[in-house]
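Design job #97: recover the sequence.
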């Protein structure tokens, strides 16, 4: 009789085969998970799937996901992205690579409102990249800065990835948001530093702008984006002061986004409302379909005792715990080249977290490390969603240029993984401070 471990192994092989055949990821997860459950316990193995599935999707932490998606979609039609880029350009235009630095800065702020990386790439990329190309920037330089900085939305709160991680592990969303803040801002600073150094050493790739702006114009630009800054303070401030839970803050933020878009930017016509709700429903349904399918697959792994076996194996190793972490990170980078970030997080988290805790590591710290790793996944060919989003919003770009431009940022992300591993306080200090 075939063992449970062999059944689980065959289910994983089936999953990889379906992914290779370009089957939608939620279908691949559901089919391989159900096949594994039948292999483990016959038809009775799938009897509880519907009830378990409903229970998983009713997780309170997941309520925040559609609300933050709605918040981001409302802001996407407001024109706020244009104002953010304009304000950043007025402050950074005189430094080498100023437009690239402006794109990174505006992506960082927009990411702090939307929580979805492809939204940031689409909104900022649609304005920033054509402007850079018009001013003589090399296509790889222009596209790389936007595609990479768009991924910061995954790490800087409010982050959809942290919401999903919390739904699986039970780690506080507020603490995860706090844990991602310092690494996210550091990554943004490192990206801007790289852009400046690259433009300084290779000026032909990023010509310096001859435009000059007065201090009055710069302050006026900041005033124009003040509603966005107030929105960030409203959402994050209400969470960290304990006034609201992350889910309640998401609801308040979504309402505030409607107010800003309607009263300040005057962009809430019927056409835009339809766009907002259709896009929110589409993205939310896609995410929740993956969440549900991943739960079915995870349930199969749990029934086969895969998480327990992995935990026992890892804890029993004589190798350094940090070597184990390094191997895990490399494997996740490779998997991220094949599977989208949300699916990868939902599948590997239940397997890896027990092992990580067995080694004595903080699951909150690992959550931040995992999301930085997933940032690499969304900008890594051939599956990196940010790269194809960049191509879709600026069709004249060559994919080869986009791939070439992203490589230095992968090195920066890898360096951040090393820093968080060497100095866990980067991820844990702020959560401990607000706890």
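Job complete. Output follows.
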């Amino acid at each position: 009789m075939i063992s449970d471990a062999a059944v689980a192994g065959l289910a994983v092989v089936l999953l990889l085969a379906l992914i290779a055949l370009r089957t939608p990821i939620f279908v691949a997860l559901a089919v391989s998970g159900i096949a594994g459950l039948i292999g483990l316990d016959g038809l009775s193995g799938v009897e509880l799937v519907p009830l378990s599935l409903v229970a998983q999707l009713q997780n309170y932490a997941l309520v925040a996901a559609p609300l933050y998606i709605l918040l981001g979609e409302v802001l996407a039609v407001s024109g706020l992205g244009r104002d953010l880029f304009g304000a950043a350009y007025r402050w950074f235009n005189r430094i080498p690579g100023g437009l690239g630095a402006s794109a990174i800065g505006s992506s960082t702020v927009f990411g702090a409102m939307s929580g979805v990386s492809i939204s940031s790439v689409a909104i900022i990329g649609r304005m920033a990249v054509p402007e850079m190309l018009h001013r003589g920037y090399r296509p790889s330089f222009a596209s790389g800065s936007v595609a990479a900085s768009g991924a910061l939305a995954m790490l800087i709160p409010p982050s959809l990835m942290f919401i999903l991680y919390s739904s699986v592990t039970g780690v506080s969303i507020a603490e995860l948001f706090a844990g991602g803040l310092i690494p996210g801002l550091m990554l943004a600073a490192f990206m801007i530093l790289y852009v400046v150094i690259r433009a300084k050493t290779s000026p032909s790739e990023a010509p310096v702008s001859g435009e000059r702006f007065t201090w009055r114009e710069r302050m006026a630009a900041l005033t124009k984006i003040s509603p966005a800054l107030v929105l960030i303070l409203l959402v994050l401030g209400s969470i960290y002061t304990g006034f609201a839970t992350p889910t309640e803050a998401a609801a308040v933020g979504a309402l505030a986004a409607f107010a800003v878009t309607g009263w300040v930017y005057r962009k809430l016509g019927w056409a835009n409302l339809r766009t907002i709700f259709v896009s929110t429903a589409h993205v939310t349904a896609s995410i929740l379909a993956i969440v549900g399918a991943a739960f079915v697959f995870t349930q199969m792994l749990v029934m086969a005792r895969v998480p327990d076996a992995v935990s026992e194996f890892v804890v029993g190793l004589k190798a350094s715990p940090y070597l184990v972490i390094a191997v895990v990170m490399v494997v996740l980078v490779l998997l991220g080249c094949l599977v989208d970030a949300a699916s990868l997080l939902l599948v590997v988290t239940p397997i890896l977290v027990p092992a990580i805790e067995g080694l004595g590591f903080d699951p909150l710290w690992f959550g931040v490390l995992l999301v930085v790793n997933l940032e690499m996944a969304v900008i890594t060919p051939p599956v990196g969603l940010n790269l194809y989003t960049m191509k879709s919003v600026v069709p004249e770009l060559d994919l080869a240029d986009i791939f070439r431009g992203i490589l230095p940022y992968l090195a920066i992300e890898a360096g951040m993984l090393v820093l968080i591993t060497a100095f866990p306080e980067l991820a844990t200090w702020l959560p401990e401070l607000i706890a």
